[in-house]
Amino acid sequence: MADGKPVAARKTGRERPRAKSSRPRSTLNKRAAKPRSKPSKSSTELRARSAPASAESGQPAVKRETRSKITEPKTGPARGARSAGTAGSPAKAAKAPARRPDASDLAKQHRDISVSEFFAKNRHLLGFDNPSKALLTTVKEGVDNSLDACEEAGILPDIRVSIGQLAETRFRVVIEDNGPGILRAQVPKVFGSLLYGSKFHRLRQSRGQQGIGISAAGMYGLLTTGKPIIITTRTGAKKDAHHLELVIDTKQNAPKIKRDEVIDWNREHGTRVEIELEGAYRGGQHSVDAYIRQISLANPHAQITYVPPKAEEHGEEHVFPRVTDQLPKETAEIKPHPYGVELGVLMQMFRDTSARNVRSCLQTDFSRISANTATEILERANVAATRRPGEIGRDEAERIHQAIQATKLMAPPMDCIAPIGEELIERALRSEVSADFYASVSRRPVVYRGNPFLIEVGLAYGGNLPADQTITAYRYANRVPLQYQQGACAITKAIAGTEWRNYQMQQPRGALPVGPMLLMVHIASVWVPFTSESKEAIAHYPEIIKEIRLGLQECGRKVATHIRKQRRDADAEKKRAYIVKYIPQVAIGLQQILALDDGQRDKIVSNLTSVLEKSRKA
Question: Tell me, what CATH number does 375's domain have?
């Protein structure tokens, strides 16, 4: 070096005995022989600082420098730094660990979660988990609302569904109906707030249940395109037509109105909903086209005009005419049946009732409980009939609940559900499906968990239906098609669990049968037990599966009779063809034996053919 200190240190190091190294000599020699690179500023300073310490310790400075370069870890100090520290230089302080949050810090992070905010992050729960399904769900929710509104107002539904493609993945869905319309004050809440509706708290058959559908579709459109949902509605010929554009504030689950005005509209009453969204238009079993066809089968009283984004073989729009001018039977709202009320719900009903005593509460707040039945229940529970419902404790409520289960009660009233009917199911199938045989069955109403329900089955066999494929199964709940999660549905389980081989059908083990058949299964209930909020499959309640299977078996016996008759007719036709083929040969033989002329021979052929026809008809 220039100052000579490293040289002195090197000489001092030679005079003292060398410390034994644990490394092999060959390794040290190789490392010492490596050419040096030009030292950086930091390494020069390090050598300058460590040189005196090396001289005092008697170790060779050059070899310490080389060894420190080789063995210095990336995250720790160099050997030279450690030796310098031992000589008195200050050591580097360790980094203090970060402070963990305590209970007070965690409490500051807690806040309420809006239902809109939850479903915005979990929109797959509502059926918006892929673009094609999102488009279908939007159409489905709008059509369901239109049908419910028209039927409740006693109006034959006339619905128009239009889908316009704005870009490759951008669509505008417009659904317009001739329903009773919506009051201006209710429009923002109906379309701009989740879990707001009129159907959740009543026990009565309807398509919607939760008050989520159409507002969730508008929220999805807002999330994917930033465009508001557009509503035009009018409640009468002498009323104003209101035009609103609104969005959903997901943090508050509240609507924000962007535009509100009165316009001229050519409808006397009705509602028009327009949603722009990101989606995908595809054909097939899960398409919007298939949904429109299926919903026209289950709603023969409705006329639906469908305008697809791409013109089909029948033109730019397809009209599904109504099969009947008769509206479904008007359903009545019923009170909860005691068999379907759980203990916690019973305690809440006792707290919320306006009845003065517990006996009056049982009579007025539940169905199928008379004064004598209420007295019998309370005597069995050892509870005074004059007790105030609000004073009933948990133990007493549990005794009342157990006494209800042990008391024989009538089934709930059935005027709360409206089936399609065997005749209309068959007429709808004939109008949409080309087949050789049709059958339909409406089962009597029964109960699950205190909720009345009814099963209907329609069947079409033969004709143009494919004979070498799995049957087509249409699933319905309260007249609404279920197009997804077929394998998770109780209807599919009941179909696969039926022994179709007994009804002259082919069936792989544990699967749907194979043959030219279309099955339509409908459940009508005041509360359909869906497996999720998207309403795509029915839960596997044993009572429901049993009723579906009984309906399928009844239809199966009818189609088996038809299939056996077809086979008999085919066998007879085959035999007849053989006979017809050999009648001329028989006549020729008789002609030769009896020396008959040609006219007599032809007469024999005619007589034998007549006898064959008479025997076949007989």
Answer: 1.10.8.50
